[in-house]
UniProtKB/TrEMBL annotation, chain A:
Pfam families: Myotub-related, PH-GRAM_MTMR6-like. This is Myotubularin related protein 8. Residues 125-494 form the Myotubularin phosphatase domain. It comes from Electrophorus electricus (Electric eel). Residues 554-575 have a biased composition (Polar residues).
Automatic annotation (TrEMBL), chain B:
CDD domains: PH-GRAM_MTMR9, PTP-MTMR9. Signal peptide: none annotated. It comes from Electrophorus electricus. GO terms for molecular function: protein phosphatase binding. This is Myotubularin-related protein 9. The gene is MTMR9. It is a peripheral membrane protein. Its main location: membrane. GO terms for cellular component: cytosol; endoplasmic reticulum; perinuclear region of cytoplasm; ruffle membrane. The keyword Kinase does not apply. Residues 123-498 form the Myotubularin phosphatase domain. InterPro entries: Myotubularin (IPR030564), Myotubularin-like_Pase_dom (IPR010569), PH-GRAM_MTMR6-9 (IPR048994), PH-like_dom_sf (IPR011993), Prot-tyrosine_phosphatase-like (IPR029021).
Amino acid sequence: LKHLRLPHVEYVKLLDRYGKESTIGTLYLTATHLIYVEQDNHTRKETWVLHHHISSVEKLSLTVSGCPLLIHCKTFQRLHLLLPRERDTQDVYQSLIRLCQPVSEDELYAFLYNPNQTEAERRDGWDLIDMATDFSRMGLPNEFWDISSINSSYELCSTYPSLLGIPKTATVATVTGSAKFRSRGRLPALSYYHKDTKAAVCRCSQPLSGLSSRCVEDEQMLKCINDANPHCPFIYVVDTRPKLNAMANRAAGKGYENEENYPNIRFHFQGIDNIHVMRSSLQKLLESPTMSDYLVGLESSGWLRHIKSVMDAGVFLAKAVCDEGASVLVHCSDGWDRTAQVCSLACVLLDPYYRTIKGLMVLIEREWISFGHKFNHRCGHLEGNPKEVSPVFTQFVECVWHLCEQFPCAFQFNESYLLIIHDHVYACQYGNFIGNCQREQQEMRLRERTFSLWPYLLQNQAEFQNPLYKRATHNTVLRPSTLPLHFKFWCGMYNRYDKGMQPRQSVVNTLLALTLRHTQEQKTMTELQRLAVVDGILPGPIGTVSLPPDQNGCPRTTPTTSFGQSNGDCTSVSTCAGGKEDSGLEMSSQKEAEGSSATEHELQTKTDKPVSMVTQKEKVTESL
Amino acid sequence: MEFAELIKTPRVDGVVLHRPFLPTVEGTLCLTGHHLILSSRQDNTEELWLLHANIDAIEKRFIGSLGTIIVKCKDLRIIQLDIPGMEECLNIANSIEALSTLDSVSLMYPFFYRPMFEVIEDGWNLFLPEEAFKELESMTDEWRLSEVNKDFSICPSYPALVTVPKDIDDDSLCKAATFRHGGRFPVLSYYHKKNGMVIMRASQPLTGTSGRRCKEDEKLINATLRAGKRGYIIDTRTIAVAQQAKARGGGFEQEANYPQWRRIHKAIERTNILQESLIKIVEACNDHSNSMDRWLSKLEASNWQSQVKEILTTACLAAQCIDREGASVLVHGTEGTDSTLQVTSLAQIILEPACRTVRGFQALVEREWLQAGHPFQQRCAQSAYSNEKLRSEAPVFLLFLDCVWQILRQFPCSFQFNEHFLVMLFEHTYASQFGTFLGTTAAERVKLKLSQKTVSLWSWVNRPQELERFLNPLYEPNSLVIWPSVAPQSLLLWEGVFLRWNRSTKCLDEAYEEMVHIIEYNKELQLKVNSLRRQLAELETEDALPQTP
C-alpha cells in the first residue's frame, strides 16, 4: 500500500466519451483497484478498474472545471476524470503510474488473490488442463509420433514445454542438433496432429541459416516430420513473415529454409507483420474512430488488413492439412507470436474440439502458454520495455470472433467467453498468464502460489454458452471466406464500454434466458406429471414430454444473464437545435453520446461479475 | 404492341446457368412477354423465373459460337447464361434488352398477373385514409379530413384526402398550396399520443429571392402549436443548399415570419447523389479482387454508410423534438417527396410501437410513402447496374429500409417482422408481380385503376402461409420509444442486401432455424405445463366439491 499516495478523492467528475455529460462521485484507490462511486439519491453506481488493466494515465491540461485525468485500459475501457484540485490529481496520477506497472512479479494481483479454495481444489484446478491428455485425444503417441520428455528440465529449449511431440524416427542427435540450428533453440515440435489425414502441424523458430549455413540434423529433422506422414511426399514450410523481413534476418545469421537444402519441402511466406507494426496499428485503430471519417481511420490503421493476414495464414494451414493431407511446419522469427496465432487458428478451423469451451482452454494452454508466448512482455504485466508490448493474443481472439460471426452454430461459446478470457489475460488475477514460458512459471511456483482461471470459467460456463451451437452439423473443418468484405470492426471488443453503441437487446442473451427457462419448465413438468399420476389424471409413467437430448453433452445450468427491454437514452435537443449551419455535426455527436458513459457496473448485479471482483469488493468496503 | 414482336428466339436448348454459391443448371431457356425462364425439365430441380422488369443491365460475350449473357438484376443478383449459337444468343440478348426497358406502365407484368391464390383480404382496402383518420379522431378533435384535393388539382402528388388542422378552411389550404413547391402544403404526418405533439410535412416554401410570405401558410402551421409553445422546422437540406434554392424560386421559412418556429438544417443528400452512392457501394461489394485497404476505401468513398447515418440522425432529431422537447415538428426538403418522407417515417418507427408491427409497418409505407407521393416508379426505374442515362432514379426507399434494418439490428426483439420482410419490400419496389409500387402518385394510381386491374402486394404478404416467413420469432411488443445509436461503429453494412449474392447463407439460415427452434420449443413446453396445471387445478376443485355441499 506504500504506493498509495491518496486513498480517495471526493467530487470527482466522470466525463463521457465526448468529454461532455458528467456525473459526480468519489474516486477510491485501493491496493488492487481504482473505484469510482457515483452516488445520488437513489442509485449507487460503482466502476471498478483493476490496476493491471490500466495501460496509460495521462494528465491533460487544466480546465476551468477541474484537472483532467485520462485513463486508458487494456480492456479498451476509457475513463475521463475531472478532479477538483491539482495536488490531488498529481497524487492520483503518481499512484496510478506506479500501481499499473508493478516492478516485481510478487506485486501481481494473483499472488494476493484467493477465491476461497482449499489446497486440494487449487491443485485440481491446475490439473484440469493437461497436455498429455490432449496428446492422447489426438491419438498420440502412435506409430509415427512420440511424446518426448527430452526437454523436461528445459535444457534443450528454455522457452518450450517439458513435453514435446517429436517424430518417432528422429534420434536424440537429430533433435539436439536441430535445436542448435534454430533461433533460441526452438526446434520443430508437434503442435497438432490431424488423426484423419495423419498430417501434422509443427512449429519452430527461424533457422540460423544466414546466407549459406546449413545443418544436417535440422534437414534430417524436417525429413523425419515428412516421413511421419506416409500419405504425402512433401511438407509445407510456412514462414509467416513478409519475405522482406525474412531476408533481412539472413544478414543477421538467421533467415529461412533454402529449398535446395531441404528435400521435399514447399516453402511459403505468409506476410504477417511483426509485433511493432501490430502495436502501432492498434494504437491508430483506437485513436481513429472520430465521427466523420470513421472508415478512413479504420483503413489507415491497417488493423483489419493484419487480422485478414493472420486468418489467411490459418486457412492456408487448415487447407494444407485437410485437403492435401500435407504436414506443415510453421515459424516466424522466434516462433512465439505469429506462429502461435497461426497454429492455434488452424486448430480451431480443423478440429471442432477447439470450438468448445473446454477445448479453447486446452488450445490456449498448449499453443500460447506452454509454447512460450511471452505474456509478461506482450501484455506489459510489469514495468519493462514498452516495445515488447503487442496485441498478438488480442488478434487471435478477434480471429476466433470473426469465425463465430461466419459460423454462428459452430462454436459452443459466445462472444462474452472471448471477452472474459481477454480480460483475464491482462488481469493477472489468476496465475495462468503470468510469466513468459513454462520454465518461468515453474520457477515462480505459480501452481502453489496462485489459482488457475480455467475452473472459474468452467463453473460459470452457463453464461458463455452459445445457444445456437449445433455440434453435429459442424464436426469437420471450417472453411471461412477471407474476402475483405467479410471482416468487420469488432465493436463488442473495442467499444465494449461504450454501451450506447451496442445493440440494446441481445439475441444471445434472450435465447440463453429461454434455454434456462427450458430447464426450469422441464423440472416443473416432471413434478406436475408426478402429481398427475398420483391424482390419476395420467395413467402411469407415460406421456412424458420428449425432450431433445442435450446435444452438446454439457449441463445447461443456470445462466446468470438476465434480459430486459430497454430503450436508449437521449440528450436534450435544446443544446444543439440552434439552427446553425453546422448544427448537424454537433447534433450527431450529441446523439452518439447517448449511453456511452454507461461503463458502470451496478453493485447489485453481482452475478455478472467474476466471483473475484465480489470478494475483492468486500475487502475494499472494509478498508474504505 | 405485341410482346411476340420483340421475341425472335423464344426457346433455346442446352443453356447453362451459373449462379454464385449454387450448382450450375443446364436446361431450356424460354422467353415470354414478362419472364426469362430456365428449366432443366427434370423433377426436383429448381427453375429460374426472372421478371424482365428485374433486369437492370446485360452484357454479352462470345467465345467461338458459345455466347454468354451476364444478367445483372435490380435486386443486385448477377447470373450468367451460356447459350450455344451466336445468333440465338444475340436474339435472346436483344429481346431481354427490349423487354426489360419497356416504358409503358400498362405493359407491366402486374396488369397481366393473375394470382394463384384466393385473395381473402384485399390489400387495396386495408389502409384507407378515412380509417386512419377515425383512429386519430378517437384521440383528438383538433384535426379534420379535408377533401380539398379530391380531384388532385391543388396538389397533384397528394392523395385525395389529407389531414389538416381543424381551424384551417379549404380556401386557406388552396392559398398555402400556391406558396409551397408542387402545391405540397403542410399536412399531418404523425400524432404522438403521449403528448399530443405532431409531425407535419410539406415541401419548401416558395419565398424566392424577394422573401415572399404567405399568411395562410403561417397560420396553417401555427395552428398546430399549443398556446405559448414553439415548434421546430427541420429542413433536410444544408443552409447553403436552401439558400441556393431561393434563386430558383424556392427557399426556407424566414425567422421573422415564423417567430414561433426554430429552424434546423440537416444534410441529407439529393437523389442523384444517393444513386451514385448506391452504384459505388454495389460495385465495391461485387469486386472480390479488392485488398482490405481498397475495400475499406471504396466502402468509404461510396458514402452509403454516411447517408444512412445522416438520415437516421435527422429522424432521431425529429423524434427527440416530439418526445423529449414536447414540441411539434414540420419536416421538409425541396420537393417533400424523398428525404422528408425518410425522416417522418423513421421518426414514427422510433416513436410509435405500432409501426414496428407487420400491419403497422405496411400502413406506414402506405401512408408515408405511397399516399404521400413518393415517385416509386421513377426512383426505382433503374438500379445499380444500369448503363442508361440516369433520369430521376434514386435509392430513397432502400435507404429508408436500410435505416429500419439498423434499428432492427439494435433492437432485435422490438419488431414483429424480420430482415426478410425488409429485403422483400426492397425487391418489390424494383420489380414485382403486384401493382402496389407502380405509378408515381396517388392520382396516377387512380388513373391506372391499379386497385381493379392489379393485385396488391399486401393481399399476398398477409396470407398466413406467406407471413410466417416474415415474422420475427424474437418479437416481444415493446411500448417504449426506441433510440438507435448513430455512432459509425453501430451502423453496419446491410449484408442481407449488399452481400446477399456474395456469400453462402447456409450457416446463417441454419442459425436462424435454430433460433426459431429454441423459441418454438419453449412455447410448446409452456403450453404443456400450463395444460397440466389446469388439469390438476380442475381435479382439485372437483375433489373439493363434495366437502362443500
